[in-house]
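The methods section describes the discrete structure representation at length, but only in general terms. What matters is that the chain and its backbone geometry are given together, residue for residue. Nothing conveys this as quickly as seeing an actual entry. For illustration, here is how one protein appears when written out as sequence plus structure tokens:
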Amino acid sequence: MTRVLVVEDDPHLVRALVINLEARRYGVDAAPDGATALRLAAARQPDVVLLDLGLPDMDGVEVISALRGWTRVPILVLSARRASDEKVAALDAGADDYVTKPFGMDELLARLRAAVRRSEGTPLAQETMVVETADFTVDLLAKKVVRGGEDVRLTPTEWHLLEILITHPGRLITQKHLLQEVWGVSQTSKTNYLRVYMAQLRRKLEADPSHPRHLITEPGMGYRFEG
């Protein structure tokens, strides 16, 4: 059973989420504040976290940072905050997705399924397990990236994007395909997700992020990896 930790102080929304998730055979724990969330995360080891940013005891970004100190569990932010800098702060702290309230339950569940799917990963052929470039090395089996002799910490979403691209070297991967595989959505209006995450990957991996050698944009179409 997939376990979901819901971190939300609105009891009506918590009830709606619990009903919908349990109806689909998810195990659900709920926390009304950040401190309880961190305790439950350590005790229950959830497979995915749904997190409101506006908690009564601490900001949700602090919860994300605390979780990222010891776990790669997928974190989906649920928030009424619409400002782009709020979203960027949550994503930079280690969140994997950002759902703005009010949201449709079907879309949220699709994103949750995608988050769980990408965290589980898929087995790959042995000959593609280690990919080396002039700037970084990726061990697909260990899910590890090394640059300049040091480990690079990637969020599950960043990892899944990178994994798709590097296992198809030189091939154009369309925006629609990436959105479907990583977020469970294919709307072209969501391409801003790709821009944000590709920019983060380039900052972490490219020697010159503004002139990338490996993570290449094909304007209006998608992205490709060059070794």
Remarks:
- Confidence is low (pLDDT under 50) at residues 122-127.
- The CA atoms of residues 65 and 93 lie 6 Å apart.
- The helical segments are 11-23, 34-44, 60-68, 84-93, 105-120, 156-166, 175-183, 191-205.
